[in-house]
Specification:
Distance between the termini: 30 Å
InterPro entries: SAM-dependent_MTases_sf
Keywords: Methyltransferase, Transferase
Protein name: S-adenosyl-L-methionine-dependent methyltransferase
Number of helices: 6
Strand content: 15-25%
Pfam families: Methyltransf_23
Radius of gyration: 19 Å
Number of strands: 7
GO molecular function, one term: methyltransferase activity
Helix content: 25-40%
Largest sheet: 7 strands, mixed
Order of helices and strands: EHEEEHEHHEHHE
Length: 255
């Protein structure tokens, strides 16, 4: 996004960085290489997989756990008030309490110059004029309903500034980028052509898989589920100007 991963104006010599929901750890490693002075910790609910041939920088470590438990007594890896940067991306499927997450993160940051940076989406699609086009998509309304039952938020991207303000963070900034659903033929840049192909092929699969997880055991007929799969593919078909929004929000813990 804008050719840079981190938008926060963090210290040039940070000592501790936390990557929340690190997945494979690829971003944790990137952050560790960018800031050699810092211990870069990747945190995830599941173990970070061992990737054959990957050599981790000496300043990288991985922890299995829930960010909502950090800072509590008996948890020594990360303590309140010591982190220069907390970073998270695409936590929708795993974050059941966004206000609590932001408040927990705020306490973990260094007073005065610790930054929280959140990268996430709103599950609202727009046409080329900026008009919402997904309000009547039945499968999306079903996802929203099931997410609400679990405390998940499909508009977590645009809500991050409010939660940061409620947690007492200051100097809050938000940048919104378009994640386009255009075809490769509509893109001029080679990277965007490849990205468009990825979005066309993989995004319907990922979203349908998420829907299947949400409705598992709810008694839906196979025919009904298959109809949703087809409709997701239809609704997300490439179209010039079609997009959803990817929000990058960052804020600082005051003194």
């Amino acid at each position: 996004m804008s050719d840079k991963l981190i938008h926060s104006p963090i210290s040039t010599s940070p000592t501790k960085i936390l990557d929340v929901g690190c997945g494979t750890g690829i971003v944790t490693v990137t952050l560790a290489k960018q800031w050699r002075s810092a211990e870069a910790i990747g945190l995830d609910l599941t173990p970070v997989p061992k990737i054959p041939g990957r050599q981790l920088p000496s300043n990288v470590s991985f922890v299995q756990g829930n960010v909502l438990d950090l800072g509590k007594p008996g948890q020594e890896k990360v303590t309140n008030g010591e982190i220069d940067l907390i970073y998270s991306r695409l936590l929708l499927a795993g974050m059941s309490d966004w206000p609590k997450y932001i408040k927990t993160a705020a306490l973990l940051l260094k007073p005065g110059d610790g930054w929280l940076e959140v990268h996430d989406l709103d599950w609202i699609w727009y046409d080329g004029s900026g008009k919402p086009i997904s309000n009547d998509w039945g499968w999306l309304r079903l996802i929203d309903s099931e997410c609400q039952k679990r405390g998940l938020e499909i508009e977590c991207g645009s809500r991050a500034p409010k939660y940061m303000e409620q947690a007492g963070l200051v100097d809050i900034q938000t940048v919104a980028y378009e994640w386009r659903n255009s075809s490769a033929e509509d893109e001029k840049d080679d990277f965007m052509k490849r990205f468009s192909e990825y979005t066309r092929i993989e995004m319907p699969k990922l979203i349908f898989g998420f829907l299947e997880m949400l409705i598992e055991g709810k008694g839906h007929a196979k025919e009904e589920v298959e109809a949703w799969r087809r409709q997701i593919k239809t609704d997300l078909a490439p179209e010039k100007g079609k997009h959803w929004k990817f929000y990058i929000t960052y804020g600082r813990r005051p003194d």
